[in-house]
Automatic annotation (TrEMBL):
This is Mg2+/Co2+ transporter CorB. Belongs to the UPF0053 family. It comes from Sulfuritortus calidifontis. Gene3D superfamilies: 3.30.465.10, CBS-domain (3.10.580.10). It is found in: Cell membrane. Pfam families: CBS, CNNM, CorC_HlyC. The keyword Ribonucleoprotein does not apply. One of its GO terms (cellular component) is plasma membrane. GO terms for molecular function: flavin adenine dinucleotide binding.
């Protein structure tokens, strides 16, 4: 009864005959328990009677002999019939179950009439008490939370890296593209209404293979530009606007709030590698790539460009100097913090949410036990802030942290 059903299934698939017999026995636990308890009680009763007879013949029919027989048979049953076998079965179920199945299977066939007769009364009593035995097949089906707990407690049976990847897969339905996207302020884009010389300079110094192209206002996206292909058609450091517009690629838009798992399937179906996240009004919110989704599963695996990497500088006092545009999820993962991420997506948004006012340099705020100081403000946004190590809150000890 203590055997791991999933490990038993793996043994069955490997062709283990004892495991196959054990799986058949576990399909009907009422019959299995019936034959085990029937044999167990028969042997215990026979042992008690036999020891009593032996004691009477050796010491006579008296209270001393009866007491001695009772103590002896109790000791023998507990040690050899109850405690020792059950401890061995609970400690090594995968070894014991296939072996004892060779004995229990023929016993079940031999004692089938007696087991059937006993189960008649058992089932009648269960119906009288309005109890229904659980279906073993349905009871062995595991949900997402059970699988998550199983992975979290797998210990040395599963490498830590593999366990982390599998646990991250379960979170893809809860995480949306808004949580991992690159904010609009960090997207490299060019304005097609700019002077050709300016466009050439922006393309020549670009850190990306593709850049966003818009006209006049960044929400007016007209396409995606492949930098190398456009530069190959440039002569004397000037951009041919007709050629540039011919090279524009149709942008791929993603609705805000799309789960990562859904978007990963969408990338597979459309053969896209990145998309632009827009809200219900069509305004551009950010950009998400396949790499961003894969990094949520396996962690960071590629060096980011200078324009993508949020600035995080560790100081000697244990604090961090961080860009306001940094993602809260990324900060929590990289620095081991526990900042709330239910509403705000970036550090700037989190500070503004708690200040409930326009930020000013030198202003400090306490968020989730972390003291934060606004260092630099630009365009009514927190450009950089300093995060200090968490301080214990009231009633909280260092051990709780």
């Amino acid at each position: 009864m203590a055997v791991n059903r999933y490990r038993l299934k793996s043994l069955v698939k490997a062709g283990h005959r004892g495991a196959r017999l054990a799986e058949r026995l576990l399909v009907r636990t009422d019959k299995l328990l019936g034959v085990i308890l029937l044999g167990n009680n028969l042997v215990n009763a026979a042992a008690a009677a036999l020891v009593t007879v032996i004691a009477f013949r050796l010491f006579g029919e008296n209270e001393y002999a009866l007491s001695l027989a009772t103590v002896c048979v109790t000791f023998l049953i507990l040690v050899f019939s109850e405690v020792s076998p059950k401890v061995m079965g609970a400690a090594y179920p995968e070894r014991v179950a296939p072996v004892v199945s060779y004995v229990l299977s023929p016993l079940l066939k031999l004692m089938q009439p007696a087991v059937w007769f006993i189960n008649l009364f058992v089932n009648a009593l269960l119906r009288l008490l309005r109890l229904r035995p659980p279906d073993l097949a349905s009871g062995s089906v595991m949900g997402v939370e059970e699988l998550r707990t199983l992975l979290a407690e797998s210990g040395h049976m599963l490498p830590k890296a593999h366990r982390g990847i599998l646990l991250n897969l379960f979170d893809l339905e809860k995480i949306t593209v808004d949580d991992v996207m690159r904010p609009r302020g960090q997207i490299e884009a060019i304005d097609l209404l700019s002077h050709p010389d300016e466009l050439y300079q922006e393309l020549a110094t670009s850190h990306h293979a593709r850049v966003l192209a818009y006209e006049g206002e960044v929400n007016n996206v007209v396409g995606i530009v492949k930098v190398r292909r456009v530069l190959a058609h440039c002569a004397d450091g000037k951009v041919d606007m007709d050629t540039l517009r011919e090279q524009l690629r149709q942008p791929y838009f993603i609705p805000s709030g799309t789960p990562l798992l859904t978007q990963l399937h969408a990338f597979q179906e459309t053969h896209q590698t990145f998309g632009l996240v827009v809200d219900e009004y069509g305004d551009l919110l950010g950009l998400v790539t396949v790499d961003d989704i894969l990094e949520e599963i396996v962690g960071e695996f590629a060096a980011a460009s200078p324009l993508q990497s949020p600035l995080v500088i560790a100081d000697e006092d244990g604090s961090w100097l961080v860009e306001g545009s940094s993602s809260i999820r990324e900060l929590n993962r990289r620095l081991g913090l526990a900042l709330p991420q239910e509403d705000a997506r970036t550090l700037n948004g989190l500070i503004l949410e708690h200040l409930e006012a326009m930020p000013e340099a030198g202003v400090s705020v306490m968020i989730a036990g972390y003291p934060m100081e606004v260092i630099q403000v630009q365009d009514r946004m927190v450009k950089t802030a300093r995060i200090y190590p968490r301080r214990p809150e009231a009633g909280e000890t260092r051990a709780d942290l």
